[in-house]
Automatic annotation (TrEMBL):
This is Sugar phosphate phosphatase. Metal-dependent phosphatase that shows phosphatase activity against several substrates, including fructose-1-phosphate and fructose-6-phosphate. Its preference for fructose-1-phosphate, a strong glycating agent that causes DNA damage rather than a canonical yeast metabolite, suggests a damage-control function in hexose phosphate metabolism. Has also been shown to have O-methyltransferase activity that methylates glutamate residues of target proteins to form gamma-glutamyl methyl ester residues. Possibly methylates PCNA, suggesting it is involved in the DNA damage response. Residues 6-404 form the Damage-control phosphatase ARMT1-like metal-binding domain. InterPro entries: ARMT-1-like_metal-bd_sf, ARMT1, ARMT1-like_metal-bd. The lineage of its organism: Eukaryota, Metazoa, Chordata, Craniata, Vertebrata. The keyword Nucleus does not apply. Pfam families: ARMT1-like_dom (PF01937). Subfamily III proteins have a conserved RTxK motif about 40-50 residues from the C-terminus; the threonine may be replaced by serine or cysteine.
Length: 426
C-alpha cells in the first residue's frame, strides 16, 4: 500500500534530512550557545538516529517520556491502539494505522529538540519552508499582482463577477496544496509559474466541485447577518510557502469583497509534516512580503499585518491539530477547540492530512457520502480543499473512481487530482 511505501521509504528520508540539518548547524549552535549547543546537537542527533533505527526495524511504538503538555494524551492513544490489536502484539511501526505512526514520528522529532535545550526552539524544517517560499517567488509575485489589481475595482464588481473571482482564488488555494514537502520527502516542491494561467485546464481534475455551495452559503450568511453578528470564516491551514500565500490572498479577498467580516487561521503549535505552517512561519511569511522590493508583494504584506493588528484576522494554534486523533473525537478530546469552531459560518480545511483526519483515514468505498465519513464531526458547515496524496477518498459518483483507476493507477497519490468538498453540517 501507499502507507507501506511511506513508512518504509519516505519517513526514514525525512529523518535523515532532519539529522543532516542539525549537523549543518553545528557551528551556528556553537556560536550561539558554546559547548552546550554542540552537546545538545549531539544528543538530538543520537535520539533521531535511534528513532530511525526503531522505525526501519519495525520496533514497537514506545510511550512518550517527556513532560510536554500533550504527552499524556499521546500515551492514552497508544493504549487505545494496544486495545485495538486484541493482544496481537504491541503496535509497531509497520503493524499500526499509518496516520498514527506518521503523526507519532513528527511528535518524536519534536521531542528530540524539546528535550535538548538550548536548541529546543530549533525547527529542523524551517530552511525547507523558507526555500519553498523563495523558489515560488514568480508565482507569489504573479498572485499578489493579480490580487492588488483586482482590489482596485472590487467595489464595482457585480455578484457574478465576485463569484467568478472567489472561484478563481479557491482554485489557486486548492492547487497551492500541491506544494507539500512531506509528500516529496523534503525535495523541491515549489510553485514555479503563475497558477492563474492554468486554472481552466485544471477544472476536469477537480473530482468533487462544491464551489457553488460555498458561494451560496457565504452570500446567504451575508444577507442574514446584515443586522446581527459578523460572518466568520476559519481556515485550517496546511503548508507554509506558496500554499500559505494563496490562503492569505483568499482570506483577504473574503474580507475585501465583504463576504466575510473576520477570518480565523489555525496552524500547528509545533513543526509538523515537514512543511506545515506554524505561528513563526505565518509571521515570517507576512514579514517577507512586507519587506519585498516588489510593490504588490509588499502591499499585500502591509495590508495583512494591518488585518492582524485590527483583529479582522486572528491566528490560533491548538495542540489538538498535532495529536494523532481523528477530528470525530475533537468534541471529546478538545471541547474548547470544538466550541470555538462552532462559532464559525464556514470552516475551510486545507490539504491531505486534514482530509485524512476528517474521514478517519479509512479505505472507504469511493461513493460513501462525505457527511457519513465525517462520523458526526459537524461543528459548522465545512469544506475540504485538498489535492489527493493518499488513498482515501469519499463522495464520488458511482463508477467515477473506478473509471480513473482504469487509466491511472496512481491517481489517489499523485497530487494531480483535487476536491472542493462541502458538508452543510446539518
Amino acid at each position: 500500500s501507499f502507507a507501506y511505501f511511506t513508512i518504509k521509504d519516505r519517513l526514514p528520508q525525512i529523518l535523515t534530512r532532519a539529522i543532516d540539518t542539525l549537523h549543518r548547524h553545528k557551528n551556528e549552535f556553537f556560536e550561539e550557545h558554546g559547548e552546550k549547543g554542540v552537546e545538545a546537537e549531539k544528543r538530538a542527533i543520537s535520539y533521531l538516529s535511534k528513532l530511525r533505527n526503531e522505525l526501519q526495524t519495525d520496533k514497537p511504538v514506545t510511550p512518550l517520556e517527556d513532560e510536554l503538555p500533550d504527552a499524556a494524551l499521546w500515551n492514552q492513544y497508544l493504549d487505545y491502539q494496544r486495545n485495538l490489536s486484541n493482544g496481537n502484539g504491541e503496535p509497531s511501526w509497520f503493524q499500526s494505522p499509518w496516520l498514527y505512526v506518521e503523526c507519532y514520528m513528527y511528535r518524536r522529532i519534536h521531542a528530540a529538540l524539546a528535550h535538548n535545550p538550548p536548541i529546543d526552539n530549533f525547527d529542523v524544517f524551517k530552511e525547507g519552508k523558507a526555500q519553498n517560499f523563495f523558489e515560488s517567488q514568480e508565482a507569489v509575485i504573479a498572485l499578489c499582482t493579480y490580487f492588488q489589481e483586482l482590489l482596485k475595482n472590487i467595489k464595482d464588481l457585480d455578484e457574478n463577477q465576485l463569484q467568478e473571482e472567489l472561484f478563481k482564488l479557491l482554485q489557486v488555494s486548492l492547487w497551492g496544496n500541491k506544494c507539500d514537502l512531506s509528500f516529496s520527502a523534503g525535495e523541491d516542491s515549489s510553485q514555479k509559474s503563475s497558477p492563474l494561467q492554468s486554472l481552466e485546464n485544471m477544472i476536469p481534475y477537480i473530482l468533487v466541485n462544491d464551489m457553488e455551495k460555498l458561494w451560496s452559503l457565504l452570500v446567504n450568511a451575508k444577507k442574514r447577518n446584515t443586522e446581527k453578528s459578523d460572518v466568520r470564516v476559519d481556515i485550517i491551514l496546511d503548508n507554509a510557502g506558496f500554499e500559505l500565500v494563496s490562503d492569505l490572498v483568499l482570506a483577504d479577498f473574503l474580507l475585501s469583497s465583504k463576504l466575510a467580516d473576520e477570518v480565523h487561521f489555525h496552524g500547528k503549535s509545533i513543526p509538523w509534516y515537514v512543511s506545515d505552517t506554524t505561528k513563526r512561519d505565518f509571521n515570517w511569511t507576512i514579514k517577507q512580503l512586507q519587506s519585498a522590493n516588489h510593490m504588490w508583494m509588499s502591499r499585500c504584506g502591509i495590508n495583512w499585518e494591518g488585518n492582524l493588528k485590527k483583529g479582522a484576522w486572528v491566528y490560533h494554534d491548538h495542540m489538538f491539530w498535532t495529536l494523532p486523533h481523528d477530528f470525530s473525537s475533537m468534541a471529546e478530546v478538545a471541547p474548547d477547540l470544538y466550541a470555538d469552531l462552532q462559532k464559525s459560518n464556514l470552516l475551510l480545511f486545507k490539504g491531505d492530512l486534514n482530509y485524512r483526519k476528517l474521514t478517519g483515514d479509512r479505505k472507504w468505498e469511493y461513493t460513501v457520502p462525505f457527511h457519513q465519513a465525517l462520523n458526526r464531526f459537524h461543528p459548522a458547515p465545512l469544506c475540504s480543499l485538498r489535492t489527493l496524496k493518499s488513498d482515501t477518498q469519499v463522495g464520488l459518483k458511482p463508477g467515477q473512481g473506478e473509471q480513473i483507476q482504469a487509466s491511472e493507477t496512481e491517481w489517489m497519490i499523485s497530487g494531480k487530482y483535487g476536491v472542493v468538498q462541502f458538508d452543510a453540517a446539518l
